[in-house]
């Protein structure tokens, strides 16, 4: 393209400045309205968007009958991967070597139809409380909440005081409670995990951070915010995230091993959130593996998922608009993309390796036989990969953070590595969409529950399950009663999830009746699940902003829209979605809302406010001169 025909970046900068100004004005107005709106939010306590009584029973209905342990109560280890796709581990069809997770899957039960939120913080809130994310105060990650929504107390993006974590309940029941990893549910002292039921903690409070050193991965953060037992914490010089988090978990477990009390360990890994980084030895194993390209990889994973019984043999896949033509890429671009995916695979295997170290340690200290393991992911894979070619704009973004994206050092210290949307679709194979979106690729992720005390009567289930089911299942495993209306002297929202133990024991084939439903919304993307059906809307630019109906049991790839064939079913489910919106207090997104832009604006406002605005205005003044200079030269 001739230089004169290149789009001028002035309009993009001007639009961001305008958004920042609107944000500043809106935040001031929101703070003025917040007290007035608080009373409205109190009405959200105790509602949960289900149409009938639990089909699978309460958390207390089943526990000891399916738990076999030498002690009265088992240890529970909850492992959460970050941005891991549906087919990113071997027991779900991946080529990635994950022997630890394969062994857990072989001895336990895999869930093929498990769903979570499509972004990290809402998932973490529901995972730890069993309560819908809107009621829990985390309808979106805080970085992306627009000021129009921040005016409402339940749209702050931090874990509310109207919910109780499973860690609090277990700690009060005599369990040791440990956490090592990403928190992302609040950074002030009263919101850190050490004040939400965890006895010992090392926690990263941001949406993500570097895996090799203590620094932020994007400029909206001034620093990487790590805390240990509620106090700011400096990482060791030899830090690598997956190794370090397991080392700390082992340290915590060993510190109380002689007192005979059971423990609950929550391990939310950074893998495979951006920046995607891994030790060279793991990267070397995957060099050349992804030279086949994203289309072939997606097909191969589908074939393995079918062979493993995870999806029907006739499963069809939708090609995403963001998937490029592999053959049209230059040889150099193919080389870079393939290595980026090799680093991604290496980071997954490194996580599996270090989890295996922890399991080996539990065997060595005699605790393995008394431990139940739960492994899952917080959402589908991240599609925010950068273009392979080095550009001044890319360098301008990553250089201030001390990063590069040089081919030779991809994944190593100082490298900001990501995978492109095309490989992201392969990571979610055979599903449509990915992180942030309400398509199956954003919400359907692996779930494995295993352990010697849990004598599962089946090794695979296709029943619909949801992230809010994890907390009541843990309570069922440990024999701890779920609170109902009050706890710790304050009113709380009741758990809406279902205990999975009847399903694991083979007593039921589903934990929800045909009339039960689960609603979902995040940043305007929405879904309603009922029986085998899903009503879903994905906003643009990747989605079309329209409602579609799918049978996600027979058609997990969401390839055949049934809304025209089943108009009554569609209308019924839309009416139920409206009921869900009213019950949990879903707010509409502002017109033109873009999560990425909003995150940028919020970050600027939070970090420097007016100082950043002055710099941006200076940039707008100087930018025409820069463009003139470029065109002349």
Unreliable sequence segments? 1-65
Helix content: 25-40%
Secondary-structure-derived class: alpha/beta
Tally of alpha and pi helices:
17
N-end to C-end Cα span: 15 Å
Oligomeric composition of the shown chains: single chain
Q: Supply Rg.
A: 24 Å
Mean pLDDT: 88
Observed structural traits:
single chain; about 625 residues; alpha/beta; ten-stranded mixed beta sheet; four-stranded antiparallel beta sheet; 17 helices; 18 strands; disordered N terminus
Task: Explain the overall architecture.
The chain has helices spanning 10-42, 99-107, 120-129, 147-150, 166-172, 241-255, 280-284, 294-307, 331-364, 392-398, 421-427, 440-443, 470-478, 501-504, 567-584, 595-607, 610-632; strands spanning 75-81, 109-111, 114-115, 176-182, 200-204, 226-228, 231-232, 263-268, 371-377, 447-450, 460-461, 465-466, 486-487, 490-491, 518-522, 525-530, 533-537, 547-551. It is of the alpha/beta class. β6 and β7 (231-232) form a beta hairpin. α8 (294-307) packs parallel to α11 (421-427). The model is unreliable at 1-65 (pLDDT under 50).
Topology overview:
Elements: H1 10-42, E1 75-81, H2 99-107, E2 109-111, E3 114-115, H3 120-129, H4 147-150, H5 166-172, E4 176-182, E5 200-204, E6 226-228, E7 231-232, H6 241-255, E8 263-268, H7 280-284, H8 294-307, H9 331-364, E9 371-377, H10 392-398, H11 421-427, H12 440-443, E10 447-450, E11 460-461, E12 465-466, H13 470-478, E13 486-487, E14 490-491, H14 501-504, E15 518-522, E16 525-530, E17 533-537, E18 547-551, H15 567-584, H16 595-607, H17 610-632
Parallel strand pairs: 1-8, 1-9, 2-11, 3-12, 4-5, 4-8
Antiparallel strand pairs: 2-10, 5-6, 6-7, 9-10, 13-14, 15-16, 16-17, 17-18
């Amino acid at each position: 393209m001739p230089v004169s025909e290149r789009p001028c970046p002035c309009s993009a900068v001007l639009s961001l400045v305008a958004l920042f100004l609107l944000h500043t004005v809106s935040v001031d107005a929101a703070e003025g309205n917040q007290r007035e709106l608080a009373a409205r939010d109190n009405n959200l306590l105790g509602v949960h968007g289900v149409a009938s009584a639990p089909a699978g029973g309460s958390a207390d209905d089943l526990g000891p009958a399916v738990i076999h342990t030498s002690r009265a109560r088992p240890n529970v280890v909850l492992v959460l991967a970050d941005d891991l796709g549906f087919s990113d581990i071997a027991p779900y069809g991946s080529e990635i070597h994950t022997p630890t997770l394969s062994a857990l899957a072989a001895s336990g039960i895999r869930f093929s139809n498990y769903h979570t939120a499509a972004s990290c913080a809402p998932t973490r809130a529901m995972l730890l409380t069993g309560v819908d994310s809107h009621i829990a105060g985390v309808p979106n990650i805080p970085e992306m909440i627009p000021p129009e929504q921040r005016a409402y107390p339940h749209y702050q993006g931090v874990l509310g005081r109207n919910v109780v974590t499973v860690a609090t309940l277990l700690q009060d029941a005599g369990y040791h409670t440990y956490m090592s990893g990403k928190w992302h549910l609040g950074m002030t002292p009263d919101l850190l995990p050490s004040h939400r039921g965890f006895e010992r903690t090392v926690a990263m409070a941001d949406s993500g951070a570097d895996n090799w050193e203590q620094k932020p991965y994007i400029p909206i953060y001034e620093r990487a915010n790590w805390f240990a037992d509620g106090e700011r914490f400096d990482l060791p010089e030899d830090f690598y995230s997956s190794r370090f988090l397991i080392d700390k978990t082992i340290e915590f477990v060993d510190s109380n091993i002689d007192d005979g009390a059971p423990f609950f360990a929550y391990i939310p890994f950074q893998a495979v959130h951006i920046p995607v980084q891994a030790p060279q030895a793991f990267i070397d194993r995957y060099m050349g593996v992804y030279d086949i390209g994203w289309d072939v990889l997606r097909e191969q994973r589908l074939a393995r998922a079918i062979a493993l019984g995870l999806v029907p043999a006739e499963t069809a896949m939708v090609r995403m608009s963001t998937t490029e033509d592999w053959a049209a890429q230059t040889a150099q671009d193919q080389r870079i993309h393939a290595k980026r995916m090799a680093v991604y695979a290496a980071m997954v295997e490194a996580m599996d390796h270090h989890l295996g170290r922890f399991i080996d340690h539990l065997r060595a200290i005699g605790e393995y036989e008394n431990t139940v393991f739960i492994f899952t992911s917080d959402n589908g894979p991240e599609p925010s990969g950068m273009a392979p070619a080095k550009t001044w704009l890319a360098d301008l973004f990553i250089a201030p953070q001390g990063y590069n994206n040089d081919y030779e050092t991809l994944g190593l210290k100082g490298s900001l590595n990501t995978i492109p949307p095309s490989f992201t679709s392969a990571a979610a194979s055979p599903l449509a969409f990915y992180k942030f979106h309400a398509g199956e690729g954003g919400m359907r992720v692996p779930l494995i529950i295993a352990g010697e005390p849990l004598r599962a009567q089946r090794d695979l289930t296709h029943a619909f399950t949801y992230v809010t089911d994890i907390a009541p299942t843990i309570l069922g495993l440990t024999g701890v009663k779920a609170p109902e209306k009050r706890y710790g002297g304050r009113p709380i929202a009741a758990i809406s999830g279902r205990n999975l133990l009847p399903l694991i024991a083979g007593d039921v084939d589903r934990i929800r009746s045909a009339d039960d439903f689960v609603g979902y919304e995040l940043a305007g993307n929405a879904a309603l699940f009922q029986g085998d059906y899903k009503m879903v809307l994905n906003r643009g630019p990747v989605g079309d902003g329209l409602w579609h109906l799918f049978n996600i049991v027979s058609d997990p790839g969401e390839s055949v829209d049934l809304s025209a064939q089943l108009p009554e079913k569609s209308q019924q489910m839309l009416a139920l979605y409206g009921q869900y919106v009213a019950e949990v207090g879903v707010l509409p997104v502002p017109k033109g809302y873009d999560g990425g832009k909003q995150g940028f604006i919020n970050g600027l406002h939070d970090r420097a406010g007016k100082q950043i605005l002055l710099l941006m205005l200076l940039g707008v003044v100087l930018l025409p001169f820069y463009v003139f200079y470029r065109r002349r030269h």
